[in-house]
Specification:
The chain is α+β, with helices and mostly antiparallel strands. The protein is built from nine helices and 13 strands.
Length: 295
């Protein structure tokens, strides 16, 4: 269905609005009952509703029809749930909606985003799903529940215990320690612009604040920065994460930059979009923490 304002100030053309919606006998009967003066126009290929207030009246009728169709779809969803219910501790059933509550999982987030009309409720820390989307939720539920079980605290602890002491675990811990040092190898002959966001191989978009000229130890370079171009004179540069305001003001590279042989480069639009998304999420978390602290 769509709204079309067909009003006209020409005396030879009747004032009114054209109304177009998919053919359905029952819907047409309700439309004719609400607009008895409406006539089908072969020229417009739509219904024509005469009157100066026709557009407003049709828009109001259309909103009511859409609301009614949602009620019908929700009713069908309730019937589908009653016939083949999802029985899970991660699904709460309310009178007017479904609620999905799981441990945090990126897989769950990505899957729930594909469920029509599903929305995140930050206050309840849950996904709200109308009954009209039950069938779509049902199709994805096995994937959602499996990801939720994998991310239960006890399951995460068991996996962490199994990984503890393994070569992969030791390498991961070493990478985390190196990242917390906020340093990065730079070519002294090609230093980045300080105070401006640039793209790096290891840490994404960052801002370099300075370079003290200290040489990079070869063992550290081989252990943590083996993907950098061969160079024997790297020096340490000090970096920090770029804030949202800096990322918004940064002008992206006009073309996809070739990174072969470079340590840093001007970020592309895709690089900036990903960094801005992460910066916005960080800002929201900080805002929530400040709100909780004030309470």
């Amino acid at each position: 269905m769509k709204r079309t304002d067909g009003s006209s100030s020409n005396d030879d053309v009747p004032t009114g609005a054209s109304a177009l919606f998919p053919y359905d006998r029952i819907t047409v009967e309700r439309f004719r009952k609400s607009f008895p003066r409406a006539r089908w126009s072969d020229e417009l290929k739509a219904w024509f509703v005469p009157g100066k207030t026709a557009a407003r009246r049709f828009n109001r009728w259309l909103e009511q029809e859409l609301a009614g169709s949602n009620v019908h779809a929700d009713s069908m969803g309730r019937d589908a749930y009653a016939f083949d219910p999802i029985v899970s501790k991660y699904l709460l059933v309310h009178q007017d909606r479904l609620e999905v509550q799981t441990p945090y999982s990126r897989s769950v987030v990505n899957t729930m985003r594909d469920v029509p009309f599903a929305s995140w409720d930050p206050d309840r820390r849950a996904w709200t799903v109308p009954f009209r989307s039950y069938e779509q939720l049902h199709r994805r539920w096995a994937e959602i529940e499996a990801a939720a079980i994998r991310n239960e605290p006890e399951a995460r602890k068991q996996r962490a215990a199994q990984r503890r002491g393994s070569p992969q675990d030791l390498a991961s811990r070493a990478r985390a320690i190196e990242r917390r040092r906020r340093r990065y190898p730079l070519d002294p002959a090609d230093l980045p612009p300080f105070g401006r966001p640039v793209m790096t191989r290891s840490f994404g978009v960052v801002v370099f604040d300075g370079c003290d000229g200290e040489s990079v130890d070869g063992e550290i370079l081989r252990s943590h920065y083996s993907d950098l171009p061969d160079h024997h004179n790297y020096v340490w540069g000090q970096w920090r994460p770029a804030d949202l305001d800096e990322l918004i003001k940064t002008w992206p590279s006009r073309s996809k930059t070739k990174i072969d042989g470079t340590v840093w480069w001007q970020p592309t639009l895709d690089d900036l979009r990903a960094a801005r998304k992460m910066a916005r999420a960080l800002e929201r978390r900080r805002t929530r923490l400040r709100t909780i602290t004030r309470r």
